[in-house]
# Entry
Amino acid sequence: MSELSATQQIKNYVLHECHMDKVGIAGIDRFNESPEGQHPTDFLPGCKSVIVFCTRLPDGAVETTFRAFEDLNYGVHGIYGAFGYSGAPNYMLMFANYRLSRFVEKLTGCTAMPEPCGPTHGAKMMSMRHCAYAAGLGEFGWSSLMLTPEFGPRNRFGAVLTTAELEPDPMYHGPQLCDPARCHVCEKLCPTGAIPPYTEGSGRIVESGGKEIAYGQVNWNKCRIMCHGTGKDFNESGTDIIPQDLEDPINDDLTNINRYYSKYPRRDYIQHNPTWKCGNCLTYCPVGSWYEKFRDTKLTNTDVDQYIDKEEV
# Structure
């Protein structure tokens, strides 16, 4: 029996030694459309391959969002922050990055650079979503989240850049994971309307490996404000601090909102910048079959089927 290739040894190491759930490899040509400053060679000159992997988020941690938004049990939502978003998953990925980089360098003799995962140590990082897309792990949803066929959006991604030339994986060509013309769950369950309704031609186009996909042009101001806890149900004022009719996703005046932050600092969360404070677009997304698994368990009172158009027959 022939020895395993370096590519297969690396994949096995990711899955069995780093305990990740999926792994894929993107060749450097998959990043030809990267924005300035976000190309792998901007981080590692001579980079030839990007190894991308993911850890599945525990359903029980993710679904604490239900307790916050449906039961107004806000404190429980911190479990999502710690175990379903920025705490344990990022550290698990960070240690996987470190171990994998050492393994790749020892195996191949080439340079391997770990990429940061999430807001860790203030390091500049590539977009893990776009890396995962380029490595064939899944597709973008309309919410701009990266979806895998196995876990939907309930993943966190990490990546290692290397000058080793490895065998790339094909782009994802399985069943379409998100059909925004039919499914409006993320749009309807976004508390501040940050995710726009789908209209043909309105999405942001991403191209990699000869495959093109569009996702929604999210109003990041509205998303940021909700995550920071300025919806009326998530702050002490009893009112919506963010207007519901903001139009410009880049240049809206946030003076009043920033003034609110200084008046009502968050006192009850583990992060200084609680970007996990919402999470509805991730939690309620039906891709990955969580809704089918938990439909009859009373974990949620929200019927997401009402936001999915029936297919014409």
User: Anything to note?
Assistant: Residues 88-108 form the longest helix (21 residues). The first strand starts at residue 22 and ends at 27. Confidence is low (pLDDT under 50) at residues 241-246, 260-273.
